[in-house]
Amino acid sequence: MIGRPLDKQYPEKTGRSQGDVILDVQNLTGEKFRNVSFQVHTGEVLGFFGLVGAGRSEIMRAVFGVDKYQSGTVTLDGKRLKSGDPAAAIDAGLGFCTEDRKKEGLALKLTILLNMTLVKLPFLSRIGWIQKHSQRSAADEYMQSISIKAPTVTQLVGNLSGGNQQKVVVAKWLMMHPKVLIVDEPTRGIDVGSKAEIYDIINRLSKEGIGIIVVSSEIEEILGICDSVVTVYEGNQTAQLDITPELTREEVLACALGKTKGGATA
């Protein structure tokens, strides 16, 4: 079903290489998190792991500008982003696939075509008129490139499987050619075959030089797809660990339960 054994559901990381720092977050503090600092390099897949309610999604919403933060800085490709300004974040090259695709990521009563091109519409318009040929051409291209299974881009998104809905969310942001893409719980509620396809897309994007942040509550997913992981406990960043064959799930879980890298309790 997924083209490889289940024990090899994660793609090989060979061929991925990290470049310069593209996203730099320093001492970010908001209502539900404190003093969070991390960097993302081009071509890197950085994981964010913690228990439900740890503050992972709140950190990402602040980085993207959906929520305002109280202090700290977010710098993307040398440009400092303003707190609470998602439009500026998008213009700078940041994309955000939210945790709840049905409520926040998609308009279920609209077509694949319209959902894919919602963010891109200003660039597909001329003097106020949508260039429908360009819009359809772009949607057809991405539907094929990430293998969205539907007869046509005119099908309603609400009629798609969970995996294909998630691909539409990803395609929407890929159309903006992001420098960094945040994917929050990218495989929640989708079947094993679709999970493998999402992992392949993440792997391919990293090879193309895009920085990826994967937020997940599944420790195996983090270890399988990411290069390093930031752990969060009750709004505190407890560790950043390189993912190597020697790193165990127990070590990561301990940090997510409040142990800092040095062994103290956060």
Features of this protein?
about 270 residues; alpha/beta; six-stranded mixed beta sheet; four-stranded antiparallel beta sheet; 9 helices
Counting helices, strands and paired strands, the structural category is alpha/beta
Mean pLDDT: 92
Gap from first CA to last CA: 43 Å
DSSP strand content: 15-25%
- H/E topology pattern: EEEHEEHEHHEEHHEHEHEEH
The tally of strands reads 12
Radius of gyration: 18 Å
Question: What is the approximate shape?
Answer: globular
**Helix proportion range:** 25-40%
The helix count comes to 9
Largest sheet: 6 strands, mixed
Stretches where pLDDT is under 50 for at least 5 consecutive residues are none
Strand order of the largest sheet: 6-9-10-3-11-12
Question: Can you describe this structure?
Answer:
With 266 residues, the protein is α/β, with parallel strands linked by helices. Helices cover 32% and strands 24% of the residues. It has nine helices and twelve strands. The chain has helices at residues 56-64, 86-92, 101-105, 112-117, 132-145, 162-174, 192-207, 219-225, 249-256, and strands spanning 21-30, 33-41, 45-49, 71-76, 79-80, 94-97, 125-126, 129-130, 180-184, 211-216, 228-233, 236-242. The strands form three sheets. The protein has a six-stranded mixed beta sheet with strand order 6-9-10-3-11-12, sandwiched between helices. A four-stranded antiparallel beta sheet has the order 2-1-4-5, covered by helices on one side. It has a two-stranded antiparallel sheet with strand order 7-8. The radius of gyration is 18 Å and the shape is globular. The protein starts with 20 loop residues before the first strand and ends in a 10-residue tail after the last helix.
